[in-house]
Specification:
Helix 1 runs parallel beside helix 3 (91-118). 22% of the residues lie in helices and 26% in strands. The chain contains 6 helices and 16 strands.
């Protein structure tokens, strides 16, 4: 049991990058958790003899955000005992890892969709004369073609625009990260041989495999860069290959032998779908989206049950001549501070609308 739990958790940890990039809280004895916002206040000169009774405008204003845990998220597989006996390899550990991968994939996808939603939202703090800044959408390039999304120079310019917007909105410089798809990431670093835009992005303190790992080795404008196949990209996850160039299709080279899991379309994850208690939108809400830049306060995730493994045994194993390996977790995600969320888009003058 410990071995399979370790394999599942290792698979989850190695594939879930969003978990450590946002604000995470563990929930006990409840279904939702409240996060408090406080807005700006102001400093005033004191008049001798006047009592001090707090700011006359009631500042700083306070607002509340509630994140609810979605229904139990599971991934499972049945392992037939005879298959194990006849196999020339260790089967259960491999299956446990794949269960961890599946949970990590869903975990990241929901968080990234929440950040994109936050980038389009106004701040919950909206008191008169004390309205806090909301999210930001930054266009990559200037042409009406989605192909700008993989243009290295255009991406770098968008990073600097995003960094300036975060600075202007008072977002901390600590914990700023970006998540791009692999083709965008490699477009940025392909000049590491000393030519091209990549020569300016190499972290010379990192050597060997770390340079190509996609685990935040590079920074632009103080923003650490990650790559993921779970980030929304023109209505698909991670990539959009083939087809004619258009405002919503970058016309990347069509791949071959892609199987069933490359270029998956975004599923319907609105809060009207059974099991979902937060709003994650549907495919139509991400038709122009092609990358995220955010700070740790931009989104929050609430966990009621962390990644766990359960395995049947005893009489159940005898009756079915095998065991069910189950991975599970209970979590919910949403944006917190919209000002800390930036969505990159391409192919149009304006990005996708709020949802």
């Amino acid at each position: 049991m410990k071995l399979f739990s370790g394999e599942m958790f290792k698979g989850f940890q190695h594939n879930a990058i969003a978990r450590d990039l946002v604000t995470k809280r563990t929930l006990r004895n409840g279904k939702s958790l409240q996060f408090i916002y406080t807005g700006h206040t102001k400093a005033e000169f004191h008049t001798p003899g006047n009592s001090i009774l707090g700011n006359s405008d009631g500042a700083p204003p306070v607002a509340e955000k509630t994140i609810t845990v979605d229904d139990l998220l599971i991934s499972s597989a049945f392992v037939y005992e005879l298959d194990e006996t006849l196999a020339h390899y260790e089967l259960r550990g491999e299956i446990s890892k794949k269960i961890g991968y599946a949970l990590a994939q869903k975990y990241d996808r929901l968080i990234f969709r929440s950040i994109a939603r936050g980038a389009r939202a106004a701040s919950p703090v909206s008191a008169t004369n004390f309205v806090e800044p909301g999210g930001t959408q930054v266009r990559i390039g200037t042409a009406a073609q989605a192909s700008d999304a993989v243009n290295a120079d255009a991406i770098v310019n968008a990073f600097y625009d995003a960094a300036a917007a975060l600075d202007e909105k008072g977002v901390s410089g600590d914990g700023r990260v970006a998540v791009l798809n692999p083709r965008q990431y490699y477009a940025l670093i392909k000049g590491v041989d000393g030519s091209g835009i990549g020569q300016y992005l190499v972290n010379r303190d990192s050597q060997g495999d770390a340079i190509q790992s996609g685990k935040g080795v590079y920074e632009i404008a103080g923003i650490k860069i990650y790559k993921s196949m779970n980030v929304p990209f023109f209505g698909e996850y991670g990539t959009k290959l083939g087809g004619a160039a258009s405002a919503t299709n970058p016309a990347l080279p069509a791949g071959s032998n892609l199987g069933s899991f490359v270029q998956q379309s975004l599923e319907d994850a609105r809060n009207s779908v059974a099991g979902i208690n937060n709003e994650y939108g549907n495919q139509g809400n991400f038709s122009k989206s092609c990358g995220l830049i955010f700070q740790k306060e931009g989104a929050g995730v609430v966990e009621a049950i962390g990644p766990q493994v359960q395995i049947t045994s005893g009489d159940v194993s005898v009756i079915y001549q095998g065991d069910v390996i189950l991975g599970r977790l209970a979590m919910g995600a949403d944006y917190l501070n919209p000002a800390a969320c930036v969505e990159l888009f391409a192919g149009a003058a304006t990005g996708d609308g709020a949802f």
